[in-house]
Amino acid sequence: MSALSVNHLLGIKEVSTDDIKLILETANQFKEVINRPIKKVPTLRDITIANLFFENSTRTRLSFELAEKRLSADVINFSASSSSVSKGETLVDTVNNILSMKVDMVVMRHPNPGAGVFLSKQIDATIVNAGDGAHEHPTQALLDAYSIKEKLGDLQGVRVAIIGDVLHSRVALSNIFCLQKLGAEVMVCGPATLLPKYISSLGVHVEYNLDKALAWCDVANMLRVQHERQDIKYFPSVREYTMQYGLTMDRLNALNKEIVVMHPGPINRGVEITTEVADSHQSIILRQVENGVAVRMAVLYLLSQ
Amino acid sequence: MKEKQIIGKKELDVILNRLCCQLIENHHDFSNTVIIGIQPRGIALTNRLIKLLKDVYHIKNVQFGYLDITFFRDDFRRRDEPLSANKTQINFLVEEKNVVFIDDVLYTGRSIRAALDAIQSFGRPSKIELLCLIDRRFSRDLPIQPNYTGKRVDAIASQRVKVFWEEEDKKDAVTMLSLDK
Predict the structure, then answer these.
(1) Which CATH code, of 3.30.300.30, 3.40.50.2020, 1.10.290.10, 3.50.4.10, is assigned to B2-78+86-178?
(2) Cβ within 8 Å of residue A168, ≥6 positions away
Protein backbone atom coordinates (compact mmCIF):
# COMPACT_ATOMS: atom_id res chain seq x y z
CA MET A 1 0.00 0.00 0.00
CA SER A 2 1.46 3.31 -0.92
CA ALA A 3 0.37 6.87 -1.37
CA LEU A 4 1.78 9.98 -2.99
CA SER A 5 4.04 12.15 -0.86
CA VAL A 6 2.37 15.33 -2.14
CA ASN A 7 -1.15 16.74 -1.80
CA HIS A 8 -1.09 18.61 -5.10
CA LEU A 9 0.53 17.95 -8.44
CA LEU A 10 2.08 21.33 -9.14
CA GLY A 11 5.23 20.27 -10.93
CA ILE A 12 7.48 17.28 -11.47
CA LYS A 13 10.28 19.07 -9.62
CA GLU A 14 8.46 18.64 -6.29
CA VAL A 15 7.48 14.99 -6.61
CA SER A 16 9.77 12.09 -5.74
CA THR A 17 10.92 9.28 -7.98
CA ASP A 18 8.74 6.89 -5.97
CA ASP A 19 5.71 9.09 -6.61
CA ILE A 20 6.38 9.03 -10.35
CA LYS A 21 6.78 5.26 -10.33
CA LEU A 22 3.56 4.84 -8.36
CA ILE A 23 1.66 7.03 -10.84
CA LEU A 24 3.00 5.11 -13.83
CA GLU A 25 2.21 1.78 -12.18
CA THR A 26 -1.34 2.88 -11.35
CA ALA A 27 -1.74 4.18 -14.90
CA ASN A 28 -1.14 0.61 -16.08
CA GLN A 29 -4.27 -0.53 -14.28
CA PHE A 30 -6.28 2.36 -15.72
CA LYS A 31 -5.03 1.66 -19.22
CA GLU A 32 -6.60 -1.78 -18.83
CA VAL A 33 -9.81 -0.13 -17.59
CA ILE A 34 -10.12 2.22 -20.59
CA ASN A 35 -9.71 -0.68 -22.98
CA ARG A 36 -12.67 -2.57 -21.52
CA PRO A 37 -15.99 -2.69 -23.34
CA ILE A 38 -17.37 -0.49 -20.53
CA LYS A 39 -14.69 2.03 -19.71
CA LYS A 40 -16.09 3.58 -16.57
CA VAL A 41 -15.35 2.84 -12.90
CA PRO A 42 -17.27 4.37 -9.98
CA THR A 43 -14.22 5.29 -7.88
CA LEU A 44 -14.57 9.09 -7.68
CA ARG A 45 -18.35 9.19 -7.66
CA ASP A 46 -18.43 11.45 -4.59
CA ILE A 47 -15.91 13.97 -5.92
CA THR A 48 -16.45 17.15 -7.90
CA ILE A 49 -13.64 18.45 -10.08
CA ALA A 50 -13.42 21.91 -11.64
CA ASN A 51 -11.41 22.28 -14.83
CA LEU A 52 -10.21 25.87 -14.89
CA PHE A 53 -8.63 26.74 -18.20
CA PHE A 54 -7.33 30.30 -18.28
CA GLU A 55 -5.58 29.46 -21.53
CA ASN A 56 -6.63 27.56 -24.64
CA SER A 57 -6.25 23.81 -24.79
CA THR A 58 -7.75 20.91 -26.73
CA ARG A 59 -5.93 17.73 -25.83
CA THR A 60 -5.17 18.36 -22.19
CA ARG A 61 -8.64 19.62 -21.47
CA LEU A 62 -10.44 16.79 -23.23
CA SER A 63 -8.05 14.27 -21.75
CA PHE A 64 -8.63 15.52 -18.20
CA GLU A 65 -12.36 15.70 -18.72
CA LEU A 66 -12.46 12.18 -20.09
CA ALA A 67 -10.28 10.90 -17.25
CA GLU A 68 -12.61 12.51 -14.71
CA LYS A 69 -15.70 11.10 -16.36
CA ARG A 70 -14.22 7.62 -16.66
CA LEU A 71 -13.68 7.78 -12.88
CA SER A 72 -17.31 8.91 -12.39
CA ALA A 73 -16.41 12.30 -10.88
CA ASP A 74 -18.73 15.25 -11.36
CA VAL A 75 -17.11 17.75 -13.68
CA ILE A 76 -17.54 21.48 -14.19
CA ASN A 77 -15.71 23.35 -16.90
CA PHE A 78 -14.57 26.89 -17.04
CA SER A 79 -12.73 28.82 -19.66
CA ALA A 80 -11.39 32.31 -19.11
CA SER A 81 -12.52 33.73 -22.41
CA SER A 82 -16.22 33.31 -21.57
CA SER A 83 -16.13 34.23 -17.88
CA SER A 84 -15.95 37.07 -15.39
CA VAL A 85 -12.15 37.04 -15.61
CA SER A 86 -12.59 39.40 -18.52
CA LYS A 87 -14.47 41.68 -16.11
CA GLY A 88 -11.41 41.94 -13.88
CA GLU A 89 -11.99 39.26 -11.22
CA THR A 90 -8.79 38.02 -9.52
CA LEU A 91 -7.64 34.40 -9.68
CA VAL A 92 -8.23 33.77 -5.96
CA ASP A 93 -11.71 35.28 -6.12
CA THR A 94 -12.65 33.25 -9.16
CA VAL A 95 -11.44 30.01 -7.61
CA ASN A 96 -12.97 30.72 -4.19
CA ASN A 97 -16.31 31.36 -5.82
CA ILE A 98 -16.09 28.06 -7.61
CA LEU A 99 -14.97 26.27 -4.45
CA SER A 100 -17.93 27.60 -2.46
CA MET A 101 -20.01 25.50 -4.80
CA LYS A 102 -18.32 22.53 -3.02
CA VAL A 103 -15.60 21.48 -5.39
CA ASP A 104 -12.95 19.01 -4.17
CA MET A 105 -10.30 19.27 -6.85
CA VAL A 106 -9.12 21.90 -9.27
CA VAL A 107 -7.38 21.18 -12.56
CA MET A 108 -5.88 24.43 -13.73
CA ARG A 109 -4.09 25.79 -16.75
CA HIS A 110 -2.86 29.34 -16.47
CA PRO A 111 -0.61 31.58 -18.59
CA ASN A 112 1.44 32.69 -15.56
CA PRO A 113 4.23 30.46 -14.22
CA GLY A 114 3.63 29.55 -10.57
CA ALA A 115 -0.14 30.13 -10.68
CA GLY A 116 -0.74 26.66 -9.25
CA VAL A 117 1.74 27.12 -6.40
CA PHE A 118 0.19 30.49 -5.56
CA LEU A 119 -3.30 29.04 -5.55
CA SER A 120 -2.31 26.04 -3.41
CA LYS A 121 -1.32 28.49 -0.65
CA GLN A 122 -4.66 30.30 -0.79
CA ILE A 123 -7.23 27.52 -0.93
CA ASP A 124 -7.55 24.04 0.49
CA ALA A 125 -8.73 22.05 -2.54
CA THR A 126 -6.36 19.65 -4.28
CA ILE A 127 -4.74 21.29 -7.29
CA VAL A 128 -3.49 19.61 -10.44
CA ASN A 129 -1.37 21.79 -12.69
CA ALA A 130 -2.39 21.37 -16.32
CA GLY A 131 0.30 23.79 -17.50
CA ASP A 132 1.43 27.11 -16.06
CA GLY A 133 3.04 29.43 -18.59
CA ALA A 134 6.46 28.21 -19.70
CA HIS A 135 7.04 26.59 -16.29
CA GLU A 136 5.70 23.04 -15.92
CA HIS A 137 3.18 20.65 -17.45
CA PRO A 138 3.52 17.64 -15.13
CA THR A 139 0.88 15.32 -16.56
CA GLN A 140 2.37 15.69 -20.06
CA ALA A 141 5.77 14.66 -18.71
CA LEU A 142 4.23 11.68 -16.94
CA LEU A 143 2.41 10.49 -20.02
CA ASP A 144 5.54 10.97 -22.14
CA ALA A 145 7.52 8.88 -19.65
CA TYR A 146 4.74 6.28 -19.61
CA SER A 147 4.70 6.12 -23.41
CA ILE A 148 8.47 5.72 -23.68
CA LYS A 149 8.39 3.04 -21.00
CA GLU A 150 5.60 1.24 -22.81
CA LYS A 151 7.51 1.33 -26.10
CA LEU A 152 11.03 0.58 -24.86
CA GLY A 153 10.35 -1.33 -21.64
CA ASP A 154 12.43 0.82 -19.31
CA LEU A 155 13.68 4.38 -18.97
CA GLN A 156 16.98 3.61 -17.28
CA GLY A 157 19.76 4.72 -19.61
CA VAL A 158 17.40 5.69 -22.44
CA ARG A 159 18.59 8.74 -24.40
CA VAL A 160 15.88 11.29 -25.04
CA ALA A 161 16.40 14.37 -27.18
CA ILE A 162 13.98 17.26 -26.70
CA ILE A 163 14.08 19.20 -29.92
CA GLY A 164 12.81 22.64 -30.91
CA ASP A 165 11.34 25.58 -29.03
CA VAL A 166 12.61 24.72 -25.54
CA LEU A 167 12.51 28.37 -24.41
CA HIS A 168 8.73 28.68 -24.53
CA SER A 169 7.96 25.09 -23.61
CA ARG A 170 6.56 23.91 -20.30
CA VAL A 171 6.66 20.37 -21.65
CA ALA A 172 10.45 20.53 -21.95
CA LEU A 173 11.08 21.47 -18.32
CA SER A 174 8.70 18.88 -16.86
CA ASN A 175 10.10 16.25 -19.21
CA ILE A 176 13.67 16.98 -18.18
CA PHE A 177 12.83 16.60 -14.46
CA CYS A 178 10.72 13.50 -14.99
CA LEU A 179 13.07 11.64 -17.33
CA GLN A 180 16.12 12.39 -15.18
CA LYS A 181 14.33 11.14 -12.06
CA LEU A 182 13.61 7.89 -13.89
CA GLY A 183 17.23 7.45 -14.95
CA ALA A 184 17.10 8.60 -18.57
CA GLU A 185 19.68 10.83 -20.23
CA VAL A 186 18.32 14.04 -21.71
CA MET A 187 19.57 16.28 -24.50
CA VAL A 188 18.02 19.53 -25.66
CA CYS A 189 18.48 20.63 -29.24
CA GLY A 190 17.38 23.74 -31.10
CA PRO A 191 18.58 27.08 -32.36
CA ALA A 192 20.60 28.96 -29.72
CA THR A 193 17.89 31.62 -29.54
CA LEU A 194 15.30 29.05 -28.48
CA LEU A 195 17.40 27.30 -25.82
CA PRO A 196 17.34 29.02 -22.40
CA LYS A 197 20.74 30.35 -21.35
CA TYR A 198 21.15 28.26 -18.21
CA ILE A 199 19.53 25.05 -19.44
CA SER A 200 22.84 23.14 -19.12
CA SER A 201 22.72 23.74 -15.34
CA LEU A 202 19.91 21.15 -15.24
CA GLY A 203 22.41 18.47 -16.22
CA VAL A 204 21.24 18.04 -19.80
CA HIS A 205 23.36 17.82 -22.95
CA VAL A 206 23.02 20.81 -25.24
CA GLU A 207 23.27 20.38 -29.00
CA TYR A 208 22.66 22.83 -31.82
CA ASN A 209 22.84 20.37 -34.70
CA LEU A 210 19.72 18.27 -35.31
CA ASP A 211 21.50 15.44 -37.13
CA LYS A 212 23.97 14.99 -34.29
CA ALA A 213 21.12 14.97 -31.77
CA LEU A 214 19.23 12.34 -33.78
CA ALA A 215 22.33 10.18 -34.04
CA TRP A 216 22.73 10.35 -30.25
CA CYS A 217 19.17 9.66 -29.12
CA ASP A 218 16.79 6.70 -28.81
CA VAL A 219 13.75 8.94 -28.57
CA ALA A 220 13.15 12.30 -30.25
CA ASN A 221 10.51 14.47 -28.60
CA MET A 222 9.70 17.21 -31.11
CA LEU A 223 8.36 20.42 -29.60
CA ARG A 224 6.00 22.77 -31.33
CA VAL A 225 7.30 26.14 -32.45
CA GLN A 226 5.13 28.39 -30.28
CA HIS A 227 4.53 31.26 -32.67
CA GLU A 228 1.96 32.82 -30.35
CA ARG A 229 4.50 33.28 -27.55
CA GLN A 230 7.30 34.55 -29.75
CA ASP A 231 7.11 38.30 -29.40
CA ILE A 232 10.41 38.85 -31.19
CA LYS A 233 11.98 37.01 -34.14
CA TYR A 234 13.95 34.01 -32.87
CA PHE A 235 14.85 32.69 -36.33
CA PRO A 236 14.91 34.34 -39.77
CA SER A 237 11.97 32.43 -41.29
CA VAL A 238 9.83 29.36 -40.76
CA ARG A 239 11.36 27.87 -43.92
CA GLU A 240 14.85 28.24 -42.55
CA TYR A 241 13.78 26.72 -39.20
CA THR A 242 12.32 23.72 -41.01
CA MET A 243 15.47 23.22 -43.03
CA GLN A 244 17.63 23.28 -39.91
CA TYR A 245 15.38 21.68 -37.29
CA GLY A 246 12.46 20.03 -39.10
CA LEU A 247 12.29 16.24 -38.68
CA THR A 248 12.01 14.65 -42.12
CA MET A 249 11.95 11.07 -43.39
CA ASP A 250 15.33 11.67 -45.07
CA ARG A 251 16.86 12.54 -41.73
CA LEU A 252 15.37 9.44 -40.07
CA ASN A 253 16.46 7.19 -42.95
CA ALA A 254 20.01 8.51 -42.73
CA LEU A 255 20.32 7.02 -39.22
CA ASN A 256 21.52 3.46 -38.82
CA LYS A 257 18.90 2.77 -36.13
CA GLU A 258 15.20 3.26 -35.60
CA ILE A 259 14.31 5.98 -33.12
CA VAL A 260 10.97 6.68 -31.47
CA VAL A 261 9.32 9.95 -32.50
CA MET A 262 7.10 11.86 -30.07
CA HIS A 263 5.26 15.17 -30.13
CA PRO A 264 3.16 16.70 -27.33
CA GLY A 265 0.78 18.30 -29.86
CA PRO A 266 -0.61 20.34 -31.42
CA ILE A 267 1.56 19.60 -34.44
CA ASN A 268 2.65 22.26 -36.90
CA ARG A 269 2.81 19.86 -39.83
CA GLY A 270 5.58 20.81 -42.18
CA VAL A 271 7.36 23.01 -39.62
CA GLU A 272 8.99 20.97 -36.82
CA ILE A 273 7.89 17.62 -38.25
CA THR A 274 6.72 16.49 -41.69
CA THR A 275 3.40 14.75 -42.23
CA GLU A 276 5.26 11.66 -43.38
CA VAL A 277 7.16 11.35 -40.11
CA ALA A 278 4.18 12.23 -37.90
CA ASP A 279 2.16 9.42 -39.47
CA SER A 280 4.99 6.90 -39.72
CA HIS A 281 5.24 3.71 -37.67
CA GLN A 282 8.07 5.24 -35.64
CA SER A 283 5.76 7.93 -34.33
CA ILE A 284 3.87 7.25 -31.08
CA ILE A 285 2.04 10.58 -31.09
CA LEU A 286 -1.47 9.11 -30.96
CA ARG A 287 -0.36 6.53 -28.40
CA GLN A 288 0.71 9.44 -26.21
CA VAL A 289 -2.80 10.86 -26.39
CA GLU A 290 -4.34 7.52 -25.43
CA ASN A 291 -1.94 7.08 -22.53
CA GLY A 292 -2.72 10.63 -21.42
CA VAL A 293 -6.17 9.59 -20.25
CA ALA A 294 -4.84 6.62 -18.26
CA VAL A 295 -2.06 8.68 -16.66
CA ARG A 296 -4.45 11.47 -15.70
CA MET A 297 -6.87 8.94 -14.21
CA ALA A 298 -3.99 7.65 -12.10
CA VAL A 299 -3.06 11.16 -10.95
CA LEU A 300 -6.64 12.06 -10.01
CA TYR A 301 -7.15 8.72 -8.31
CA LEU A 302 -3.99 8.91 -6.22
CA LEU A 303 -4.47 12.57 -5.26
CA SER A 304 -8.02 12.00 -4.09
CA GLN A 305 -7.13 9.20 -1.67
CA MET B 1 -1.96 -13.14 20.20
CA LYS B 2 -2.92 -16.78 19.62
CA GLU B 3 -2.68 -18.58 16.29
CA LYS B 4 -4.55 -21.80 15.68
CA GLN B 5 -4.42 -23.96 12.57
CA ILE B 6 -7.88 -24.83 11.34
CA ILE B 7 -6.99 -26.59 8.08
CA GLY B 8 -3.79 -28.49 7.32
CA LYS B 9 -2.26 -29.58 4.03
CA LYS B 10 -4.04 -32.91 3.83
CA GLU B 11 -7.49 -31.53 4.60
CA LEU B 12 -6.93 -28.69 2.13
CA ASP B 13 -6.22 -31.22 -0.63
CA VAL B 14 -9.48 -33.04 0.15
CA ILE B 15 -11.41 -29.76 0.16
CA LEU B 16 -9.96 -28.55 -3.16
CA ASN B 17 -10.80 -31.88 -4.80
CA ARG B 18 -14.33 -31.73 -3.44
CA LEU B 19 -14.78 -28.16 -4.73
CA CYS B 20 -13.59 -29.25 -8.18
CA CYS B 21 -16.08 -32.12 -8.20
CA GLN B 22 -18.91 -29.81 -7.17
CA LEU B 23 -17.98 -27.40 -9.97
CA ILE B 24 -17.92 -30.22 -12.52
CA GLU B 25 -21.28 -31.45 -11.26
CA ASN B 26 -22.86 -28.10 -12.14
CA HIS B 27 -20.76 -26.95 -15.07
CA HIS B 28 -19.87 -30.23 -16.83
CA ASP B 29 -17.18 -29.46 -19.42
CA PHE B 30 -17.06 -25.72 -18.65
CA SER B 31 -17.95 -24.85 -22.26
CA ASN B 32 -20.18 -21.97 -21.18
CA THR B 33 -18.52 -21.24 -17.84
CA VAL B 34 -15.71 -18.87 -16.92
CA ILE B 35 -13.77 -18.82 -13.68
CA ILE B 36 -12.93 -15.40 -12.26
CA GLY B 37 -10.41 -15.10 -9.42
CA ILE B 38 -10.78 -12.04 -7.22
CA GLN B 39 -7.55 -10.08 -6.69
CA PRO B 40 -5.41 -10.34 -4.71
CA ARG B 41 -6.06 -13.33 -2.43
CA GLY B 42 -8.35 -15.32 -4.70
CA ILE B 43 -5.66 -15.84 -7.32
CA ALA B 44 -3.70 -18.63 -5.69
CA LEU B 45 -6.91 -20.57 -5.05
CA THR B 46 -8.03 -20.02 -8.65
CA ASN B 47 -4.75 -21.28 -10.06
CA ARG B 48 -4.86 -24.33 -7.78
CA LEU B 49 -8.41 -25.23 -8.83
CA ILE B 50 -7.66 -24.70 -12.53
CA LYS B 51 -4.62 -26.96 -12.25
CA LEU B 52 -6.65 -29.67 -10.54
CA LEU B 53 -9.45 -29.41 -13.11
CA LYS B 54 -6.95 -29.79 -15.93
CA ASP B 55 -4.55 -32.37 -14.51
CA VAL B 56 -6.76 -34.60 -12.39
CA TYR B 57 -10.21 -34.20 -13.94
CA HIS B 58 -9.03 -33.76 -17.55
CA ILE B 59 -11.10 -30.71 -18.33
CA LYS B 60 -9.25 -29.24 -21.27
CA ASN B 61 -10.49 -25.74 -21.90
CA VAL B 62 -11.31 -23.87 -18.75
CA GLN B 63 -11.52 -20.15 -19.45
CA PHE B 64 -10.35 -18.12 -16.50
CA GLY B 65 -9.32 -14.59 -15.58
CA TYR B 66 -8.41 -12.35 -12.67
CA LEU B 67 -10.58 -9.44 -11.58
CA ASP B 68 -9.35 -6.46 -9.57
CA ILE B 69 -12.10 -4.73 -7.62
CA THR B 70 -10.14 -1.79 -6.17
CA PHE B 71 -11.86 0.90 -8.25
CA PHE B 72 -15.29 -0.48 -7.38
CA ARG B 73 -14.94 -0.66 -3.59
CA ASP B 74 -17.31 1.26 -1.39
CA ASP B 75 -14.70 2.28 1.19
CA PHE B 76 -12.61 4.52 -1.06
CA ARG B 77 -11.47 7.56 0.99
CA ARG B 78 -12.97 6.01 4.13
CA ARG B 79 -9.88 4.04 5.13
CA ASP B 80 -6.67 5.14 6.77
CA GLU B 81 -4.55 3.16 4.35
CA PRO B 82 -4.69 4.00 0.66
CA LEU B 83 -5.88 1.28 -1.69
CA SER B 84 -3.54 0.10 -4.38
CA ALA B 85 -4.78 -1.65 -7.43
CA ASN B 86 -3.89 -5.05 -8.85
CA LYS B 87 -3.99 -6.32 -12.34
CA THR B 88 -7.23 -7.28 -14.03
CA GLN B 89 -6.68 -9.92 -16.65
CA ILE B 90 -9.84 -10.85 -18.49
CA ASN B 91 -9.37 -11.10 -22.22
CA PHE B 92 -12.83 -12.37 -23.08
CA LEU B 93 -16.40 -11.18 -22.67
CA VAL B 94 -18.65 -12.74 -20.05
CA GLU B 95 -21.81 -11.99 -22.04
CA GLU B 96 -24.30 -14.85 -21.60
CA LYS B 97 -21.70 -16.93 -19.71
CA ASN B 98 -21.89 -18.61 -16.34
CA VAL B 99 -19.38 -16.88 -14.09
CA VAL B 100 -17.87 -18.43 -10.98
CA PHE B 101 -16.17 -15.95 -8.64
CA ILE B 102 -13.37 -17.40 -6.56
CA ASP B 103 -12.08 -15.85 -3.35
CA ASP B 104 -10.25 -17.23 -0.34
CA VAL B 105 -12.20 -15.82 2.62
CA LEU B 106 -15.78 -14.57 2.49
CA TYR B 107 -16.16 -12.10 5.34
CA THR B 108 -18.40 -9.00 5.13
CA GLY B 109 -19.38 -9.66 1.51
CA ARG B 110 -18.32 -6.18 0.43
CA SER B 111 -15.57 -7.40 -1.90
CA ILE B 112 -18.06 -9.63 -3.66
CA ARG B 113 -20.51 -6.73 -3.99
CA ALA B 114 -17.71 -4.75 -5.66
CA ALA B 115 -16.90 -7.72 -7.88
CA LEU B 116 -20.55 -7.96 -8.95
CA ASP B 117 -20.26 -4.32 -10.05
CA ALA B 118 -16.87 -4.75 -11.67
CA ILE B 119 -17.77 -7.76 -13.78
CA GLN B 120 -20.49 -5.72 -15.52
CA SER B 121 -17.72 -3.96 -17.44
CA PHE B 122 -17.13 -7.19 -19.32
CA GLY B 123 -20.72 -7.88 -20.34
CA ARG B 124 -23.90 -9.32 -18.87
CA PRO B 125 -23.34 -12.83 -17.51
CA SER B 126 -26.29 -15.18 -17.55
CA LYS B 127 -25.47 -16.37 -14.03
CA ILE B 128 -22.92 -15.62 -11.33
CA GLU B 129 -21.89 -18.06 -8.61
CA LEU B 130 -19.49 -17.71 -5.71
CA LEU B 131 -16.92 -20.18 -4.48
CA CYS B 132 -14.94 -19.47 -1.32
CA LEU B 133 -12.51 -21.55 0.66
CA ILE B 134 -13.52 -20.12 4.02
CA ASP B 135 -16.96 -18.77 4.88
CA ARG B 136 -16.98 -16.63 8.04
CA ARG B 137 -20.66 -17.15 8.26
CA PHE B 138 -21.79 -14.82 11.04
CA SER B 139 -19.89 -11.75 9.83
CA ARG B 140 -21.85 -10.64 6.78
CA ASP B 141 -22.74 -6.95 6.19
CA LEU B 142 -24.62 -7.71 2.97
CA PRO B 143 -27.02 -10.44 1.83
CA ILE B 144 -24.38 -12.47 -0.03
CA GLN B 145 -23.92 -16.25 0.34
CA PRO B 146 -21.50 -18.64 -1.36
CA ASN B 147 -22.64 -21.43 -3.68
CA TYR B 148 -19.57 -23.57 -2.94
CA THR B 149 -17.81 -23.50 0.42
CA GLY B 150 -14.57 -25.13 1.52
CA LYS B 151 -15.21 -24.79 5.22
CA ARG B 152 -17.49 -22.71 7.41
CA VAL B 153 -15.78 -20.93 10.25
CA ASP B 154 -17.31 -19.19 13.22
CA ALA B 155 -15.09 -16.26 14.02
CA ILE B 156 -15.67 -12.98 15.83
CA ALA B 157 -14.59 -9.56 14.57
CA SER B 158 -11.33 -9.48 16.52
CA GLN B 159 -10.19 -12.76 14.97
CA ARG B 160 -8.39 -12.99 11.64
CA VAL B 161 -8.56 -15.94 9.28
CA LYS B 162 -5.49 -16.32 7.05
CA VAL B 163 -4.96 -18.66 4.15
CA PHE B 164 -1.40 -19.71 3.27
CA TRP B 165 -0.40 -21.18 -0.08
CA GLU B 166 2.64 -23.25 -0.89
CA GLU B 167 3.37 -21.06 -3.94
CA GLU B 168 3.43 -17.78 -2.03
CA ASP B 169 3.85 -18.56 1.65
CA LYS B 170 5.80 -21.84 1.57
CA LYS B 171 3.03 -23.84 3.24
CA ASP B 172 -0.55 -24.95 2.67
CA ALA B 173 -2.67 -24.06 5.70
CA VAL B 174 -5.50 -21.97 7.07
CA THR B 175 -5.04 -20.39 10.49
CA MET B 176 -7.13 -18.34 12.85
CA LEU B 177 -5.50 -15.53 14.76
CA SER B 178 -7.03 -14.10 17.95
CA LEU B 179 -5.89 -10.52 18.34
CA ASP B 180 -7.01 -10.00 21.96
CA LYS B 181 -4.73 -11.62 24.57
Answers:
(1) 3.40.50.2020
(2) A134, A194, A226, A229, A230
